[in-house]
Amino acid sequence: MKVVTLGQSDLRVPHICLGTMTFGEQVPQAEAHAILSRSLELGVNFFDTAEMYAVPARAETYGATETILGNWFAANPGKRQQVVLATKVAGPSRGMPWIRDGLGMTPQDIARSCEGSLRRLQTDVIDLYQIHWPERHVPAFGAIAYQPEKETSQTPIHDQLEALGKLVKAGKVRHIGLSNETPYGVHEFVRLAEQHGLPRVVSTQNAYCLVNRQYENALDETNHRLGVSLLAYSPLAFGLLTGKYDETGTGDGLDPALGRIARFASVRKQRWGRQPALDAARLYNQLARDHGLTPTQLALAFCAHKWQVASTIIGVTSLAQLEEDVKAFELPLSPELMKAIDAIRQVHRDPAA
Which domains does the chain have, with CATH numbers? Predict the structure, then answer.
């Protein structure tokens, strides 16, 4: 298993990370525990979760995923020391008042969320604590344009960094990271950290896949020059790049039995449910078949071949999926196939951005 260093830290992780947001919604605890155990056996000892999980977010399942991981640690003494554990503090509410009231996220919000995560995870320290989405108003989760008139920011980045720094100083957090960030945000977090002697972010967790390579539009240069690593999430575009929706109609005509993008209306309304995203995914999926690969193999191997990606976050709902996904990262992709991928992008750009 290839191992990489995150940012300018001493945090060493495999190039595959196990995402857990389906645990507690699609995946019950017993099955989740089996996946966690097998993942560790395969060398994937990097687990990512968040306080708001399971997904789609509901008050009834808030914190469920962290609780499942915590119960696994409790049932498997000694395993916590073998795992690099990442979780996230939710940004401003975004219609989820069960997480916190108001616009969030004050230093007090960050501290309380961290304490809640530590309790549910049944651990004394979080290896990588990430801000799930910016406190600022930024185009994210399918929004395209920055709109200054919608700015509602109340907590300066410096204050957020100070709050995270206190958690690091207290030994509750080892390293910090960002998620769903912009070039400006990454630069400001790094600049202020260096100016004030505060913890430096080691990673950004952003969407990156064949139908969403928006990361390559400036954020890759920012991270490269500042020494910040990319944790790529949604490499299969919520299932679009598995090929399972290729024959099931369009848009809301997707078969709900096939996966969460079709089952959950809240997901379909985001970037992954757009018709152009489905259309482009079908082209990549056919390209995979034309080269003797499954769509899943192509999508995951693509991330493994890109210099921009430090570690790719995979989300699975079964042991079979876990085995298939891990093997895909070892597959070679020819220069000709990579050129064919770029040719599709040249026409269709990033429809799921």
Answer: 3-244+303-334 (3.20.20.100)
